[in-house]
């Protein structure tokens, strides 16, 4: 979006209100799309986030999303009552994870120091697991413990798996301790054993741009559309009725 605004600013260097053609705006969109697509194509598998909807938690399969944020990430929250356990978040991979090693990273805290568990499952073909706090595991569902504290920290779990030809499910923040509240944010799953900085899944970027582009009226294909796009003094886009 910043690239798009830069493109429009080049059309109106003095930043005054002026009519611009939708063709010019669409060209700015196309230039931005080209740059973003190049970036998407250059993403290596090792840095690619395999989980969609991790920033706004739209990819979370559970109803644990809050309206609170940490470092710009929406927070998932689970309160453990007297049940056997509660999961904080569940995501599905975008594609079949065919590599041998994968690393999950995320920010978390608990209301008091407690163990939380993460799983790499369905299909359950995990061979081994280890976490950033020393947890290890060898169960097929990838269960591995993380020793969380009451302060936000970034944690990781690395799994080694057997062959698979299906998407995987990643359960994050399962807790068995009654009275504990678990908070999760900023989730990323990537190939390899290194936890890199959070990035959105390429599908998240593509969908956002596609929606922006789809919602831009196309006067060249819609002769009944009677508005003209304008750039306001504050740099925002608006429309005015055509004369």
Sum this structure up briefly.
The chain is an alpha+beta fold.
CATH homologous superfamily (4th level) name of the largest domain: Galactose-binding domain-like
Total strands: 14
* Level-2 CATH architecture of the largest domain: Sandwich
- Shape from CA axes? globular
Distance between the termini: 30 Å
Q: What percentage of the residues does DSSP assign to strands (E)?
A: 35-45%
What percent of the residues sit in helical stretches (DSSP H or I)?
Answer: 10-25%
Largest sheet: 7 strands, antiparallel
Order of helices and strands: HEHEEEEEEEEEEEHEE
Q: Tell me the name of the CATH class of the largest domain.
A: Mainly Beta
Spans of 5+ residues with little confidence (pLDDT < 50)? none
Query: Largest sheet, order of strands side by side?
Result: 2-3-12-5-10-7-8
- The tally of domains stands at 2
Which fold does the CATH topology of the largest domain refer to? Jelly Rolls
**Average of per-residue pLDDT values:** 81
The whole-angstrom Rg is: 22 Å
Counted by DSSP, the helix tally is: 3
Structural class: alpha+beta
């Amino acid at each position: 979006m910043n690239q798009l605004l830069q493109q429009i600013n080049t059309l109106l260097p003095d930043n005054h209100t002026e009519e611009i053609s939708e063709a010019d705006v669409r060209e700015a969109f196309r230039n931005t799309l080209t740059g973003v697509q190049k970036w998407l194509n250059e993403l290596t598998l090792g840095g690619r986030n395999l989980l969609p909807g991790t920033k706004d938690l739209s990819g979370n399969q559970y109803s644990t999303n809050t309206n609170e944020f940490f470092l710009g990430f929406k927070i998932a929250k689970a309160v453990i009552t007297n049940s056997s356990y509660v999961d904080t978040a569940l995501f599905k991979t975008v594609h079949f994870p065919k590599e041998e090693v994968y690393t999950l990273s995320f920010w978390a805290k608990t209301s008091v120091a407690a163990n939380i568990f993460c799983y790499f499952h369905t299909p359950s073909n995990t061979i081994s697991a280890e976490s950033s706090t020393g947890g290890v595991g060898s169960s097929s569902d990838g269960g591995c413990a993380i020793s969380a504290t009451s302060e936000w920290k970034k944690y990781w779990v690395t799994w080694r798996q057997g062959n698979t030809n299906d998407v995987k499910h990643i359960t994050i923040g399962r807790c068995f301790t009654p009275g504990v509240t678990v908070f999760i944010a900023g989730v990323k799953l990537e190939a390899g054993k290194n936890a890199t900085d959070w990035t959105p899944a390429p599908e998240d970027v593509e969908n956002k741009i596609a929606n922006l582009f789809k919602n831009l009226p196309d006067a060249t294909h819609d002769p009944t559309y009677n508005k003209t796009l304008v750039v306001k003094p504050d740099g925002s886009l608006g429309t005015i009725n055509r004369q």
